[in-house]
Amino acid sequence: MRQIEVEIRPARNGEAREIGEVFDAAVLREWTYFADIRDMVPMFEPAFWEAFVADVEPPDVLLVAVDAADERVVGYVGTKVESSEVWVLFVRPESSGRGVGRRLLRLAEEAIRAAGCRHAILWTHAQNERAQRVYRAAGYVPDGETRTDEIKGHGFTEIRMKKPLTR
């Protein structure tokens, strides 16, 4: 497995397409509990991703991990500081297991902490056991809260996980 050197920085408007590609690649690999996941991707139109990048305003952040070798976006994380939330985190499958997601998560937590929050929360699909293992390893624990949602006509349940943030 090739070592990957990444630069992590705020997302730029011109990277919306790549961010969408990271999302699609990651869900194709991880969301296999949707039997027809291949038919569901791409989940969002390009205009969605353009707004996704353009609409981020401080103190919230949308950070990208960019492979130093080819300048390709290999992961991203976003926060919603008002709710102490790491609200999105995805890494390209070929870059997973190399610390990219851990670094992105840590930087998101730092942004939330810098805004004065004492804890961070995130929501993840109840069926996504791999993501839950990653978050548990980073210090998150389920707090008993759940919510339901749907995407492309498929219902799912999410669990909330919480982590105290120390100074």
What can you tell me about this protein's structure?
It contains 5 helices and 7 strands, in the order βαααβββαβαββ. It is an alpha+beta fold and 167 residues long. It has a single domain (6-164), classed as Gcn5-related N-acetyltransferase (GNAT) (Aminopeptidase). The longest helix has 15 residues, at 16-30. The termini are far apart. 29% of the residues are buried. The mean pLDDT is 94.
Using only C-alpha atoms, the radius of gyration works out to 15 Å
- Report the CATH superfamily: Gcn5-related N-acetyltransferase (GNAT)
Number of strands: 7
Judged by helices, strands and strand pairing, the structural class is: alpha+beta
CATH architecture heading? 3-Layer(aba) Sandwich
Précis, in short:
It comes from Microbacterium koreense. The chain has a single domain, classed as Gcn5-related N-acetyltransferase (GNAT) (Aminopeptidase, 3-Layer(aba) Sandwich), CATH 3.40.630.
Task: Give descriptors for this structure.
167 residues, alpha+beta, Aminopeptidase, 4-stranded antiparallel sheet, 3-stranded antiparallel sheet, 5 helices, 7 strands, 33% strand, globular, GNAT family N-acetyltransferase, Bact_Acetyltransf, transferase, Acyl_CoA_acyltransferase, acyltransferase activity
